[in-house]
Amino acid sequence: DRCEILLQWIQRLVVESAAGGVLDVQPTILAQPLQHFSAGMVSFTQARTIKDIQFPFPYEQLITALMLGFSGSTVIVVSVV
Asked: Which DSSP state fits 21?
């Protein structure tokens, strides 16, 4: 996936820059951005999983029917009161 490749490029660039002396920071400080990148990728993967799993069609139709019924009954109740 493009996002995973981009994450690998960024991580490799950060690690190579730290090894080459371009980023002159302590390893503990350098580990925090890498950890945030990893946590972001986990969240992205979870979001993709939620997107890929389809919602059950009968349940979706039931919710739609109940929302329409609720909307109609709300109009009637409000107009009577």
From this structure: T
2-20 vs 27-52: helix axis angle to the nearest 10?
Answer: 180
Tell the residue number behind the tokens 């980023």, with chain if given.
23
Tokens standing for residue 48: 């993709």
Write the pLDDT tens digit of every residue in 2-34: 999 999 999 999 999 999 989 889 989 999 999
- CB burial string 31-45: b at 16+ within 10 A, e below: eeeeeeeeeebeeee
Q: Which amino acid is at 57?
A: F
Q: Report residue 55: phi and psi, to 5°.
A: -75, 140
Query: What's the pLDDT tens digit per position in 54-79?
Result: 889 999 999 999 999 999 999 999 99
> What's the pLDDT at 81?
79
pTM exceeds 0.70, yes or no: no
Interacting residues of 34 by C-beta distance below 8 A, sequence separation 6+: 11, 14, 15
